[in-house]
Amino acid sequence: QVQLQESGPGLVKPSQTLSLTCTISGPSITTNFYYWSWIRQPPGKGLEWIGYIVYSGSTSYRTSYSPSLGSRTSISRDTSKNQFTLQLSSATPEDTAVYYCTRRGGSWGQGTQVTVSS
Question: 60-100 pLDDT, tens per residue?
Fold first, then answer.
């Protein structure tokens, strides 16, 4: 059974870096071909995929990001804590959303609200 929990600040100032961490309970983040993703939902809008990290081999992994967010996005991992982290630089109010971490196949965290505002 996979359980995911998002954590991080609920308020970020414009131009700062939005940073969220997802803690995984259950499988290791290094499990081959488990796609660990970030998805967000802005107020009044649909779900938007942000990016993922996936292992193929115990130490080999790759990341992929939504082109719409460009180079602002980075996903990293901490295998000792079984966590992966989203960083979204140069935050704007348009980044205000509920952010979810997920594993492809149906496992979702409960979501965390992030507001970008001065």
Answer: 999 999 999 979 999 999 999 999 999 999 999 999 999 99
Residue 33: its pLDDT value, please?
94
Q: Give the C-alpha separation, 115 to 92, whole Å.
A: 9
Between the alpha carbon of residue 30 and those of residues 13, 37, 51, 56, 110, the distances in Å are 33, 14, 17, 8, 22
According to DSSP, residue 87 is labeled E
On the question of pLDDT at 1 being above 90, the answer is no
How far is it, in rounded angstroms, from Cα 74 to Cα 58? 21
Cα–Cα dist 13/54, whole Å: 30
Q: Which two tokens stand for residue 11?
A: 């308020």
Residue 74: Cβ-neighbour burial (10 angstroms; 0-12, 13-18, 19+): middle
Residue 58 is encoded by which pair of tokens? Answer: 């115990």
- Cβ–Cβ < 8 Å for 108, 100: yes
